[in-house]
Design goal:
alpha+beta; eight-stranded mixed β-sheet; about 30% helix; binds aspartic acid
Length: about 350
């Protein structure tokens, strides 16, 4: 889950870029390694998802299928505002979903972007991988493909998501004709005061034989410009795997992950011998540097956004690492499903 900018992009672009402090590296977790067997790693909203994925692999399921079965729980959950049903909509109030899957043994992938009306975009992505010669379908084409495969179209906007969107829209400007919500309306639910809650789920899975599968699924940036696609459905950005090396994925500011080819870069770092945690930190540091060049760093040289990476290596080492402190990630292996503290570059606050 992710990336709340502390300041708006506009504020950052107009801020002075002078006087960057030297990078003060934050906490590194002790190297985490599962004791052989299957292992699944995900963002913190995936505690039940990793448990399901691990069980699926333990019963002989293919890692990519087990991973998708795990994230389907979150896609169907109306209380997760960042994925599938109940996900926050675009600026017009329409939920647009992005998802992608990768399969280790075949090095194949499938993805959908800006898909409307289908609760489980990760399953549509699986079909794209298995039933077409393509990797990515978008918008109307993705919807028609889902319909052809018998997926049910449903209204994905819950009352909670609609209110969050409406109150965001009403508070956006004092130069339009929309009046802001009342304090009583905002007091109904604490989340309604949170203007743009972030989130996504990534899940990387490795079975006992060392084969990988992974998935990332999201409703994307809350209240995005219609048609905006983030990192999640882009192979190499929001997820990537190489069956000989490992798997990685991201949540957080998708634009920064796209500009760094984040997940691909992490897998390549692991290929050259870096541990999952070192590889995640290498790319977080690269993103810090890039944010200084593209106007998204504050006057101490820290990015205005959060990014989180998750990585799992062939030998069962795993990591969750973020730009800012305060992040956990979910893991399931023979020791059970649990949330672990992630490492980070910068202490928040
Ligand atoms: N990475 C997602 C996107 O940019 C959003 C998030 O994880 O908060 O679409």
């Amino acid at each position: 889950m992710t990336g709340m900018p502390d300041l708006s992009r506009r504020q950052f672009l107009s801020a002075t870029a002078a006087g960057y402090a030297a990078l003060s590296l934050g906490a590194r977790a002790p190297a985490a390694q599962s004791e052989g067997g299957a292992v699944a790693v995900s963002s913190a909203n995936g505690l039940e998802a990793v448990r399901t994925a691990w069980e699926g692999m333990s019963q002989g399921g293919r890692p990519v299928d087990a991973a998708v079965a795990g994230v389907n729980l979150v896609e169907r959950d109306p209380n997760d505002l960042s994925v599938g049903y109940g996900g926050l909509p675009n600026e017009n109030g329409v939920v647009e979903l992005d998802a992608a899957v990768m399969d280790g043994p075949t090095h194949n992938a499938g993805a959908v972007a800006s898909l409307r009306g289908i609760k489980t975009p990760s399953q549509v992505a699986l079909r794209v991988m298995r039933r077409t010669d393509h990797v990515l379908l978008v918008g109307q084409g993705a919807l028609e493909f889902a319909r052809a495969h018998g997926f049910q179209e449903e209204n994905l906007l819950t009352e909670r998501s609609r209110k969050l969107w409406l109150y965001w829209k009403e508070r956006r400007s004092d130069r339009d004709d929309w009046f802001p919500p009342s304090d009583e309306e905002l007091a109904e639910d604490p989340i309604l005061r949170n203007e743009r809650p972030p989130g996504t789920i990534h899940l990387s899975a490795r079975n006992e034989s060392g084969d990988f599968g992974c998935v990332t699924t999201t409703s994307g940036l809350a209240f995005k410009i219609p048609g905006r696609v983030g990192d999640s459905p882009l192979i190499g950005d929001g997820l990537y795997l190489d069956n000989e090396v490992g798997s990685a994925g991201s949540t957080g500011r998708g634009e920064a992950v796209i500009l760094s080819c984040g997940s691909f870069a992490i897998v390549e770092r692991m290929r050259s011998g870096r541990t999952p945690e070192q590889a995640c930190h290498d790319i977080l540091e690269r993103i810090v540097d890039q944010s200084r060049r593209n106007g998204l760093a504050d006057d101490q040289g820290r990015p205005s956004f959060n990014v989180r990476f998750y990585a799992l290596s062939k030998d069962g080492k795993y990591a969750g690492a973020s730009m800012y402190s305060g992040g956990k990630f979910a893991v399931a292996d023979a020791a059970g499903a649990r949330l672990e503290e992630g490492s980070f570059l910068f202490q928040r606050g």
